[in-house]
Design a protein that fits this description.
- Helix 2 packs across helix 5.
- By secondary structure, the chain is an alpha+beta fold.
- The protein has helices at residues 14-23, 116-152, 177-183, 187-195, 224-243, 245-249; strands at 29-31, 51-55, 72-76, 88-91, 96-99, 172-175, 213-216.
- It has a domain at 132-249: Aspartate Aminotransferase, domain 1.
- It has 6 helices and 7 strands, in the order H-E-E-E-E-E-H-E-H-H-E-H-H.
- The two termini are 27 Å apart.
- The strands form 3 sheets. A 3-stranded mixed β-sheet has the order 1-2-3, with no helix packed on it. It has a two-stranded antiparallel sheet with strand order 4-5. The chain has a two-stranded antiparallel sheet with strand order 6-7.
Length: 264
């Protein structure tokens, strides 16, 4: 389970969901891909998860996983600890060592150390901010996201399905369904046109639950000017879709490779 999930909505009843699964004799894993907006505010521990994946994915100063190298750490309860991959790190009070003597381990995975520079940078970032700083990060991320949402929803053809009119946490999964129906331009084509302006764009995981999706996750890192520029780029492309759709459908125009043929 991811909470907040990918529409940017936080489920306040998450502990009840976990309890239902536990009552059925199963385990619950928490994907913290969207922790950026809840740092210092809520914790997986309080929801009684058995495993939590703290991935460096738009959180802890690391780029979005689709736009940069991602890594992370998995935390588990004592019941699952014997099955962790080898080696684990031990500390005897004086020095650290690697422990390979774990008979119930699932074995070694590689590379178990992740993307070392990202992990080190994230650690330094966390320690320099401290608890109060991490909470401020979350608050700014939520502020940035809701500011950007207001700008995007002013663009013709864009919408934010589910919880209409409600604020979101750290991201929004928008829909270009109206624009696609009216112009024949699809979200993936908008993403390729965005590349002409030198910035990043993501649609969604497959299968698409939100039609013609666009997922924006601004985080705490961007200034108001950055967000205004990105919204202006999207508005410009939406206007192109209505006035010159072929320009968008044949994008990108400023890349060495303009278009690749692919079938799914």
């Amino acid at each position: 389970i991811t909470n907040p999930e990918d529409t940017g909505i936080f489920n306040p009843r998450i502990e009840e969901f976990v309890q239902v699964v536990h009552d059925a004799g199963s385990l619950c894993a928490y994907d913290q891909a969207n922790a950026n907006g809840i740092l210092g505010i809520t914790r997986a521990k309080e929801a009684s998860f058995d495993l939590c994946h703290f991935n460096l994915h738009k959180t802890f100063s690391t780029p979005h996983g689709c736009g940069g190298p991602a890594a992370g750490a998995s935390g588990v309860t004592s019941k699952l600890a014997p099955f962790l991959p080898v080696p684990t790190v031990k500390f005897d009070g004086g020095k650290y060592s690697l422990d390979y003597e774990r008979p119930d381990s699932i074995g070694k995975i590689g590379p178990f150390y992740g993307v070392a520079p990202n992990v080190l940078r994230a650690y330094a970032w966390i320690m320099s901010l401290g608890a109060d700083g991490l909470r401020e990060v979350a608050e700014v991320a939520v502020l940035n996201n809701n500011y950007l949402m207001k700008k995007v929803l002013e663009i013709r053809g864009a919408s934010a399905p589910y919880a209409t009119g409600k604020r979101r946490i750290e991201q929004v999964r928008y829909s270009w369904e109206q624009l696609a129906e009216e112009t024949g331009v699809h979200s993936e084509e908008i993403g390729l046109r965005v590349a002409d302006f030198g910035t990043h764009y993501w649609t969604s995981h497959h299968p698409y639950v939100v039609p013609e999706p666009m997922t924006l996750e601004p985080t705490e890192s961007y200034s108001k000017a950055d967000l205004d520029e990105y919204a202006a780029i999207l508005k410009h492309i939406a206007d192109e879709a209505y006035t010159n759709p072929e320009l968008v459908k044949t994008a990108p125009h400023n890349s060495t490779v303009h278009k690749t043929e692919h079938e799914i």
